[in-house]
Amino acid sequence: MVELDGRVAIVTGAGRGLGRAHALGLAAHGVRVVVNDMGTSNDGTGVDGSPAQEVVDEIRATGGEAVVNCADVATWEGGEAVVQAALDAFGELDILVNNAGILRDSTIINMSESDFDEVLRVHLKGHAAPTKFAATYWRAEHKSGVDRRRNLVHTGSTSGIYANPGQSNYGPAKSGIVTFSQIAAKELAKYGVVSNCVLPGARTRLTLSSPGLPEIMEAPAEGFDQWDPANVSPVVAYLAGATCPFTGETFYVQGGTVRRLEPWSLTGRSIEHPVRWTLDDLAAAMETFGPSR
Ligand SMILES: NC(=O)c1ccc[n+]([C@@H]2O[C@H](COP(=O)([O-])OP(=O)(O)OC[C@H]3O[C@@H](n4cnc5c(N)ncnc54)[C@H](O)[C@@H]3O)[C@@H](O)[C@H]2O)c1
Fold first, then answer.
1. 52, 205, 231, 249 - which has most CB atoms within 10 Å?
2. Distance 290 CA to ligand 1 centre (A)
3. What is the Cβ-side half-sphere exposure of residue 112, based on CA atoms within 13 angstroms?
4. 31 and 95 in contact (C-beta within 8 Å)?
């Protein structure tokens, strides 16, 4: 049994796409939800509170409980505000789903400083800031004797794992999120917190703006729509459950497929030298690794 009923969650970037599906999915299982979304365009510009409000209205229309929050989660101030919104509305926080994101694709040569900084900020800092303030609250609760499971679910991307050309800002931000999740798992275990990460694949505004993807992700006239963002949400809900047995893990999720990633590891082969290598000896020994992959 996945225990979700009565828990309190924040979902960042929940006005659209995957975050919206996660918020609706959690609410359908009795979770009270802070629907956070700044309502930006794909590139992170602009502010619009209506997407988040529409999701809140949708949850309330089906008898669920939700409140809107439009903070920029990629600032310490916004991270603190969204956590405070959960405590003000529901008096508790059990689950933080970090999901907000933007895209500003460009080759390395053409990358502007602001496009690099802003994508790193929204994704990596946008995960770190709410986590910092959620963890601060959870530590205080734990120290005051509250023994309660808390769950972090983060959002990486295969772009960070497979290194997509044109995404030298987004890819490192997303692989950084996987590492951030693992560090959170280790640091916060003593406060009852589990931290896991999903790498989703779904038809959303972001992917529909990427060349080649709209054709692949087209919804079928009938049958299972494997690119529906709602397919990712059961995995997020599972990782948000009070009995979630995983921590520090990363799962690729698309359609009905869930695959666990191997953690970073050294290959079995190593070359050894009893003292510092000379360049010639090193060059010869390096050949034993075989061709570059
Ligand atoms: N769609 C996919 O296949 C896919 C694949 C890999 C990773 N992801 C990741 O999933 C997450 C959700 O993306 P999506 O595809 O649903 O896109 P989306 O554009 O539909 O949703 C992202 C939401 O984040 C909000 N947002 C942006 N910056 C914010 C900020 N600073 N504070 C609060 N809200 C902010 C936007 O307003 C938007 O509603 C992103 O982190 C994205 O990188 C998506």
1. 52
2. 40
3. 4
4. yes
Q: Is 201 in the pocket of ligand 1 (CB under 6 A)?
A: yes
Q: Is the pTM of this model over 0.90?
A: yes
Q: Is position 238 annotated as part of the catalytic site?
A: no
Helix, strand, coil percent content, the chain, rounded in steps of 5: 45, 15, 45
Q: Is the CB of 64 under 6 A from ligand 1?
A: no
Q: Mind listing the pLDDT tens digit for each residue in 84-134?
A: 999 999 999 999 999 999 999 999 999 999 999 999 999 999 999 999 999
Instruction: Give the amino acid at 275.
Output: V
| 18 burial via Cβ count (<10 Å: 0-12, 13-18, 19+) | buried
Q: Active site residue: 137, 162, 170, 252, which one? A: 170
- Dihedral of the CA atoms 75, 80, 103, 54 (nearest 10)? -140
Q: 286: CA distance to ligand 1 center in Å?
A: 42
Angle at which helices 126-143 and 76-90 cross, to 10°:
50
Considering the four listed CATH numbers 3.40.50.720, 3.30.1330.60, 2.60.120.200, 3.40.1010.10, the one that applies to the domain covering 8-266 is 3.40.50.720
Other CB atoms within 10 Å distance of the CB of residue 266: 6
The helix/strand/coil state of 222 is: coil
Contact yes or no for 98/65 (Cβ under 8 A): no
List, for residues 183-192, the tens digit of each pLDDT value: 999 999 999 9
| Helices and strands: H and E segment counts in the chain | 11, 8
The predicted pLDDT at position 268 comes to 84
| pLDDT score recorded for residue 53 | 98
Q: Could you tell me if the CB of 206 is within 6 A of ligand 1?
A: yes
Q: Which pair of tokens denotes residue 28? A: 């359908």
Which tokens hold the place of 280? 């010639």
